[in-house]
Amino acid sequence: MRLQRVLLKQQRQRVSVKRPRVESAPRWRSEQSVSSVRGFIGCVRAVWGVYRVYMLVSVCGRDGVVNMVPVCGAAVFRRCVLKNVRVVSCRTYSQEASLYIHWPYCLKRCSYCNFNKYIPRSVNHTLMTESLQKETQTLLHVSQVSRITSVFFGGGTPSLAHPSTIAAVLDTVSKHAQLSADAEVTLEVNPTPAGKSKLRDFVAAGVNRFSIGMQSLNDASLRVLGRDHSSQEALHTLSEAMTLCPGRVSVDLMFGLPDQSVDSWRCELEKVLSVCDDHVSLYQLTLERGTHLFKQVQLGEVNVPGDDVTAVMYQSARSILEKEGFLQYEVSNFAKNNAVSTHNTGYWKALQYIGVGPGAHGRFVPHALGGVLREARTQTLEPDVWIREVQQHGHATRRRIQLSHLELLEEVLVMGLRMNEGISHQHWAEFSPEASFHQVLGSSEDFQDLQKRGLLILDDRGLRCSWSGLALLDSILPVLLLRLEKFFQKPSDSAETTDQADVGLKKT
């Protein structure tokens, strides 16, 4: 699991409602799929004041916000002003984007997983490669970006792809946009012997950062989770990855696992830190309806720790990581030696990104179509249908939603406060030149109460959570979102279109 599953793994966002608690461990999933923040925001509007809202992001959950460009003329007035949508000032990186590539296939489905993945009898690698290349080329043209800042191969299990597929996609990117030699190119790896054996070839293909889905070093936990690797295989894969990409290897760990105690979690984390590289991502296990593990828990066959216990697990992990020199730069991510994920930071900073592959999500302005508003885009989910549409039309964009000014600000706020540095005044002004943080939030009694309790900080640097506030972000956001909406006093207004192909793009 990773962030784009915040963003698919880009891909969903789950919202559940629980009665207020003093504290809870974060259930954010980042690295893929930052999918849509809008469901969370809608739930906040509906229930805040009675219930506490938790946002669960699964990484295809991956969502960010893309910037707008200044335009003028009657056409823009009809398109934007009459639809009550504001055009945001152009940013210096308006021609830049990151790129997410989704490989949807796995060898098996883990017991806890409900991401967009498929277990096929066979994979036509040649056709899949051609389709990924074609959709990449088309969407680069639609966005008109001139530079790709980072590339992330997620899934699914992208380490099942042929290294030649990775090389072909990166070659396509280089032909149609600038991809610097030092651009971050990340590949998620399932730490099996088969995955380990291909790491060197992936590096030769252009990968320079690995994200290892270790999840646990307890073999009993791995079996309950349905993982197809052992703890020793994970350690061997990690060692090989660190040899090939020293300082650029991340490890995914899960806590709140069945029968896991606080002490066993601490021991497991300390063992990982004794052998890992400079980046660690922590995710709390979430029970998703329809999964095998969810059914086991419902039937009483498996027990998972309660919220109070997982909150202690999270806080203890933060303390251990800090002691070992890791900086928590985001709710679930920790790094030392400045080994932060450039790609995922782009999501949190609301930079535009392009999503390619079955079920991938994107956030960008479709300049080639005459677009001036940022769009939230979703590609067709099912791989065979996705391939057919890409072969026919050059891409398989299934849904396009224009984001209003308020929706942009909501996403900037929700994603930006995940970072320990928060949102600077300059960054906020790029999206909201007409209203500063002080103007929007300063007179709110609820906001002032959060400041007095030491959970939020608003100073000359900008707006951010304190160390304790970051752990309670899910209960802080509703206050800020409702204040934001009240200030602008305009309902979110978005236009959605569902189409098989964009007009004029049926041939590439």
TrEMBL record:
Q: Where in the cell is it found?
A: Mitochondrion
Q: Which GO terms describe its cellular component?
A: mitochondrion
Pfam families according to UniProt: HemN_C (PF06969), Radical_SAM (PF04055)
Presence of keyword Transit peptide: yes
Q: Which residue intervals define the domain Radical SAM core in the entry?
A: 91-327
Which top-level group of life is the source organism from?
A: Eukaryota
Matches recorded under Gene3D superfamilies: Aldolase class I
Q: Name one GO molecular function term.
A: 4 iron, 4 sulfur cluster binding
Q: Which InterPro entries match?
A: Aldolase_TIM, Coproporphyrinogen-III_oxidase, Elp3/MiaA/NifB-like_rSAM, HemN_C, HemW-like, rSAM, rSAM_sf
Where this protein primarily resides, as one coarse class?
mitochondrion
Q: Which UniProt keywords apply?
A: 4Fe-4S, Chaperone, Heme, Iron, Iron-sulfur, Metal-binding, Mitochondrion, S-adenosyl-L-methionine, Transit peptide
* GO BP term, example: porphyrin-containing compound biosynthetic process
User: Which family, according to the similarity comment?
Assistant: Belongs to the anaerobic coproporphyrinogen-III oxidase family. HemW subfamily.
Q: According to its UniProt entry, what is the function of this protein?
A: May be a heme chaperone, appears to bind heme. Homologous bacterial proteins do not have oxygen-independent coproporphyrinogen-III oxidase activity. Binds 1 [4Fe-4S] cluster. The cluster is coordinated with 3 cysteines and an exchangeable S-adenosyl-L-methionine.
Q: What is this protein called?
A: Radical S-adenosyl methionine domain-containing protein
